[in-house]
Amino acid sequence: MTQLGLASPIPTKKSSGDPKGSPQCGAELSEKLASTRTTQRLSLISRHLDQRLPLPGLNTPFSTERDSQSPDDIEYKPLDRTDLSSTLPSATSSQPESPSPNISTMLSFSPWPTMRESTGGPSHVAPGFVKTFGETLTLVRKLFQSTNPAAQPFVISGSGTLGWDVVASSLVEKGENALVLHTGYFADSFAKCLETYGANATQLKAPIGERPSFEQIEQALKEKPYKIITVTHVDTSTGVLSDIKRIAEIVRRVSPNTLVVVDGVCSVGCEEIAFDAWDIDVVLTASQKAIGCPPGLSILMASPRALDVFKNRQSPPASYYASIGNWLPIMQNYENLKPSYFATPPTQLVHALHTTLSQITSRPMAERFAVHAQASDRVKAAVAELGLKQLAAKPENQAHAMTAIWLPEGLTPPDVLPGLLKRGVIFAAGLHKEAATKYIRFGHMGVSVSDPARNDVDNAIAALKEAMAEAKQAKGL
Questions:
Q1: Which of 13, 37, 48, 404 is most buried by a 10 A CB count?
Q2: Does residue 339 sit in the same domain as residue 395?
Q3: What pTM was computed for the model?
Q4: Residues 438-474 pLDDT 10s
Q5: Domain span including residue 385
Q6: Which is nearest to 160 in space by CA: 262, 276, 275?
Q7: What proportions of the chain, in percent to the nearest 5, are helix, strand and coil?
Q8: How far apart (Å, rounded) are the C-alpha atoms in residues 215 and 132?
Q9: What CA–CA distance (Å, rounded) separates 28 from 298?
Q10: pLDDT at 120 > cutoff 70
């Protein structure tokens, strides 16, 4: 990448025999230098706003995905965003009209799909917003298929990760045991969060693409008492689906006081969750995946059992912002249409969530789950037709929200992702630390599958077939 620096002020030397040394010329030179510095600075800032450009080697799990972008070793020229239609690939042509389509027109099939736009932002205590927030909390109950008035929904400003902190700081005390069922990257992270607050986290691990067996879970619960058991419903790193209903049944039979905590960030809105019927204690999720809102909201559902555990703590909560005790009266007041305050809610995002949940819950949730299952079947059939395999090899382990696909020997994500990108489609690279360079991830959830007027999934499958053929040809495979 071309290095841009900020020029230092250069003093001008006066000389009676050199007109360039005159005060007027000195001023002109200073003005020119200032203009150059401004141009360089603006160019540098513009680079941070253009998503085509490679980012620094940050310590994040997405480095493989970033490395798949083409290097930027030419003079920076901003994208022309005035005519979006010219950058869209033709619906009838197998080749795109432009090799570098506008990033704003991409169809994203990474495990974080297209977001909805939010609306305006009134005061958080204005009567209209209080009504909207109260209705939103009631809609969250419908989303989780809960009718128990003693259970409590929470909608808090933050990412899905905040849900981990709420659980770890509010429901587990220092020195208590937590059993973490491991199906990929996010179990490791949840365990670290629990340990941050002083819990003893034991991970029950399975090979990549697998999940702990029911027999292993039962045996672990018999060996020592656990305050909570956590399970990632769909692990975004592997595409593995866990059987929440069966796990909850085992816990209630073997260790009935253990809280069942579900990380549903990549499942809520597309995989079946029956909060009351399955006797779950906490489901945590975020606004941006199958729910289809912009990111920024942490959404939780807590059972009466979980709330009682919090109320009977022997020590104060280990977090202030993530404390159930601070948020519980706020949520209860808003749901009863009473303005309340602990921390200012993001009013625009709450309006967006209200709109999305109104649409999602306007039809039976069973229909939504069936639509996602049908789309998943089409994707997985196409993957098999290409001779590719999934990380989750067994059908019962395969999520309906996404598909993690092993690449053929000799191919890596940077060989395939650019081919998808130029066809107007975005997939994600691998995320599991043990195999990140060997697979890609295809997210199929939310509006991309629930809107019958769209052909997003079929277009993405076609792009995958073409990109794979192109990558193999380029590698001589």
A1: 404
A2: no
A3: 0.77
A4: 999 999 999 889 888 889 999 999 999 999 999 999 9
A5: 365-475
A6: 262
A7: 40, 15, 45
A8: 45
A9: 55
A10: no
